[in-house]
Amino acid sequence: MFEQISAAPADPILGLTEAFKADPRDTKINLGVGIYKDEAGQTPILATVKKAEAILLESEKTKSYLSIEGNAAYGAAVQALLFGKASNIVSNKRARTAQAPGGTGALRIAAEFYASQFENKKVWVSNPTWANHNNVFAAAGLEIVQYNYYNADAKDMDFNAMLSSLEGAAAGDLVLFHGCCHNPTGIDPTEAQWQQLAALSAEKGWLPLFDFAYQGFGSGIEEDAKGLRIFTEANQELLVASSFSKNFGLYNERVGAFTLVAKCSDTAETAFSQAKSLIRANYSNPPAHGAAVVTTILNDAALYAEWDKEVAEMRDRIQQMRDLFVATLKEKGVDRDFSFIARQNGMFSFSGLTKEQVATLKDEHGLYIVGSGRISVAGMTRNNMDALCSAIAAVI
Ligand code: PLP
C-alpha cells in the first residue's frame, strides 16, 4: 500500500533548516526559522526557566496524567497574562483555558472547535500570514480566505485595503488576528486601528481568533496585549491561541494555550466542554513540564520580574539588530531604503528580496532566508552582520 504514496512537499521553513544544517560552510547564516539567538548565536535556556526547573525538580510529586484541559493554575496564569489581572473576564469567569501542545496545538484546537460547532466554515487570514496557519486550518476542514494586509511597495500596512477586503467577512466567520509582532511582516495595527477593527468585528458579528505567539517581543508583556484587550471591550466572544515557545524560550517543550471567552461563565463552561471533548479524541491530555515551568514563573513575583527583564533583553537585542542592519547596509553602499526594518516589530520583517536573490544568497553566500523574502532578525548578531550585509549588497 505504501508504494503508491507520493512524497509530501517539504515544509518551506523547516525544510530550509534541514538544508542549513547540511551546508558544510562555516560562514553560513540562518535567517530562516523564527528562533531567538543571542549575541553568541545561541538559543540559551532562560535563567528563570532554569530556576523554575530546579524548584519543580524538588517539588514535583507525580508524573500522573493531567486533566484534559491541563493544570488550573496554568489556565489562571495565562488568562491574567492575556486579559490583565483586573479584567472582568477573569473576575466573572468568562474564560476557560486548555493547556495545549504549543501555539500550533492551540490553533488546531481553535480550528477544530470552530469547524465542529458552527455552520460557517470560513476563516479569514491576513495576506501574508504564517505559512502553517494554512495547514492547520485546512486540516480542520476550514475554507481559508485572505484579507489584504501588506502593501509591498510601501513596505507598510494597507489598512484601508484590509478594511475593504474584510467587508466580505460574514457574521459568524472566524477572523484571525496576530496579537502582536505580525508574522511575517513585523507590522501591527496602531491602537486606533485596533479600536476600529474591534468595533467592526462586533458590528459584523465575526468570531475573532487571536494568535498570540510573541507577547513581549513588540513593546512589552502588558503593552503587547493592547490589541487583544481592546477587542475584549467590544466583543463578548473570542478565541485565543497562545504560544510560550518564544517568550519563555521553551520551543521544544511544546507549551501553549487555547482560551475561549464567552458572555458568561455558564456559556463558557458548556462551549469549553466541546473543546475538551475534541482534545480527548486528539492527544487526550497535555504534556506537563513546559506549562509547569511557565506557571512557576508567572506565579512568583520575583521570577516574574526577572522573566520580564529577560524578555526585554531579547526584545532590545532584536531592535538593536534592526537598527544595525539598516546602518550596515547603508555603509555597504546599498541605495535601497531599508529603514522600514527599523520601524517594525518582533522577530520578522519582509525584506523585499526576490526569490532569485534569496536563491543566490543561499547558493553563493550561505545566507538562508525564506523564499518569500521574510527574514528572522532574531538570527542576526554583531558577528554575522558584516557578512550578511555584504552578501545582500552583492545581490541587489
Ligand atoms: N503562530 C505564529 C504566528 C508563529 O510564528 C508560531 C511559531 O513560529 C506559532 C503560532 C506556533 O508556535 P509553537 O511553536 O508554539 O507551536
The H-and-E topology, N to C, reads as HEHHHEHEHEEEHEHEHEEHHHHEHEEH
* Average pLDDT reading: 96
Bound molecules: pyridoxal-5'-phosphate
Oligomer status: single chain
Query: What is the percentage of strand-forming residues?
Result: 5-15%
Radius of gyration (Å): 21 Å
Count the beta strands.
Answer: 13
* Helix/strand class: alpha/beta
Regions with pLDDT < 50 over 5+ consecutive residues? none
Shape: globular
Major beta sheet, strand line-up: 2-10-9-8-7-3-4
SS field, number of helical segments: 15
Helix percentage range:
40-55%
Query: What is the straight-line distance between the termini?
Result: 49 Å
**How would a textbook summarize the main sheet?**
7 strands, mixed
